[in-house]
Q: What sequence folds into this?
């Protein structure tokens, strides 16, 4: 779980400063606000930008909900007040819920980290607003020794020291050391650790949002079901689905030992920093980024990278790394999460995907890497590329899953269909062009949504192709697409430098934030 804390920044000519509300002395004159709001549970019927409920879907389709128990940390120093006029949600901490009908091996506790990340100016104009959510089965684990020797007994390691006053502008709050801890608590000897989901459990999460999401969602889920309801003062977003495991790959070595394909990929990655991911140097090398943009320069610097999962760079990277690791993953962790796609990810999407308002669909896959944005509409089909290692850590063959849930009116916009029923076919095509039909049950439309899925296909880098059709006799009058354009980003991406001891990283993004354990330089 990255960035599992709240922080509000005011941006003015004097620089960025951390706030506890937009009316703080050093923030009330700010021109812009950046915020990461970890959502709190809803406490009454009129609350918005909060967690409505957590539960599990029973065999009869009904949702059995759980109960909020506690926050991971109470009254954390960076929590901030909401500003409804600017649509800035209150910033809280991750919440722990008890779901008795979804008991796992170590109890029935689940951690929810539902966040809204965005920026808005003082006039209330929203630049971007991204919803990202993770649900994890957890248990409270105690240790004989502190998880981090620098732990000060107060929440996160760096929060109090680096964020309490206007002169301390670092917004990084690091996790305690230890790979098993995913969420720390106030006690240095205790933290929350992750457990496996119950077998075949279809978990449900509902969020109340003051601003309805627009565009597309991406998730790490199997067979997702999504509903969106308009209420008086909020939109209720409900996502139900089963968790999925996503394989990870890793490779390290001396530059001259790598094959040309990996060297060329790395140089290309470093020359497209906004598409590459979090990359840094493990030494005090201020020019590591510039050196890493050339083949010869990489011989003179030490770098490391955590690549993005999506986009052409990610897909290229998987193909370059897989042969070096025997086409085998190093780990296969379990996930249950979803997020809205950013404006940048939607920039090249078809107009039917970006026009109008509201959520157009959700695409989910267990592939390590995948296409950027929604499926590409090309050649009369909806195409989506995926790439993963062929084998899991235990040597078994990795089987892929792909789910596409799309609004029916969006499909009709793409194909100029009438209101008659839509037929669907799906196949998985290898890089060599070989196609195989995939068993799927998708012919029906339900409540204005199309549901398509492909399962049990193998890798390394196939393309999932969906084709929709109607009987010719049922197509007399095409549907006119909505012409309202989606908002365009009003700010460019920026870069910051982050350090942890001798290690230095450069992070690029619309709202760049240092990774866990790092301090902004």
A:
């Amino acid at each position: 779980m990255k960035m599992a804390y709240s922080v509000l920044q005011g941006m003015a000519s004097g620089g960025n400063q951390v706030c506890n509300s937009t009316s703080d002395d050093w923030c009330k004159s700010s021109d812009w606000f950046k915020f990461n709001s970890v959502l709190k549970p809803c406490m009454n019927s009129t609350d918005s930008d909060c967690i409505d409920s957590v539960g599990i879907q029973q065999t009869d389709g009904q949702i059995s909900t759980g109960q909020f128990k506690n926050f991971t940390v109470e009254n954390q120093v960076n929590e901030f007040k909401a500003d409804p006029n600017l649509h800035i949600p209150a910033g809280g901490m991750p919440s722990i819920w008890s779901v008795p009908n979804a008991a796992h091996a170590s109890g029935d506790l689940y951690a929810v980290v539902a966040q809204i990340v965005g920026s808005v100016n003082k006039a209330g104009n929203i630049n971007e607003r991204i919803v990202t959510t993770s649900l994890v089965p957890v248990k409270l684990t105690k240790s004989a020794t502190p998880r981090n020797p620098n732990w000060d007994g107060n929440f996160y390691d760096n929060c109090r020291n680096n964020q309490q006053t206007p002169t301390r502008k670092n917004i990084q709050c690091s996790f305690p050391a230890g790979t098993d801890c995913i969420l720390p608590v106030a006690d240095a000897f205790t933290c929350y650790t992750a457990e496996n989901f119950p077998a075949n459990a279809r978990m449900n999460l509902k969020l109340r949002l003051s601003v309805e999401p627009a565009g597309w969602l991406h998730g790490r889920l199997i067979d997702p079901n999504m509903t969106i309801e308009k209420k008086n003062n909020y939109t209720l977003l409900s996502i139900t689905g089963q968790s999925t495991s996503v394989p990870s790959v890793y490779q390290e070595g001396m530059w001259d030992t790598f094959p040309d394909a990996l060297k060329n990929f790395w140089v290309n990655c470093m020359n497209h920093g906004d598409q590459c991911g979090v990359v840094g140097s493990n030494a005090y090398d201020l020019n590591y980024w510039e050196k890493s943009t050339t083949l010869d320069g990489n011989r003179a610097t030490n770098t490391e990278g955590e690549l993005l999962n999506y986009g052409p760079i990610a897909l290229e990277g998987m193909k370059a790394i897989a042969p070096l690791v025997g086409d085998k993953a190093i780990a296969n962790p379990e996930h249950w999460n979803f997020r809205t796609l950013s404006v940048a990810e939607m920039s090249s999407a078809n107009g039917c995907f970006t026009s109008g308002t509201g959520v157009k669909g959700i695409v989910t896959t267990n592939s390590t890497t995948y296409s950027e944005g929604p499926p590409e509409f090309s050649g009369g089909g909806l195409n989506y590329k995926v790439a993963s290692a062929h084998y899991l850590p235990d040597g078994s063959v990795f089987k892929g899953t792909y789910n596409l849930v799309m609004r029916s009116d969006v499909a009709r916009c793409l194909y100029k269909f009438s209101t008659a029923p839509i037929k669907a076919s799906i196949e998985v095509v290898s890089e060599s062009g070989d196609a195989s039909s995939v068993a799927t049950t998708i012919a029906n439309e339900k409540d204005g949504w199309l549901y398509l899925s492909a399962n049990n296909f193998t890798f390394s880098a196939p393309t999932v192709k969906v084709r929709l059709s109607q009987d010719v006799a049922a197509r007399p009058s095409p549907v006119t697409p909505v012409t309202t354009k989606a908002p365009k980003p009003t700010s460019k991406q920026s870069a910051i430098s982050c350090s942890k001891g001798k290690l230095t990283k450069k992070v690029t993004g619309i709202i760049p934030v240092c990774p866990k354990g790092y301090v902004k330089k």
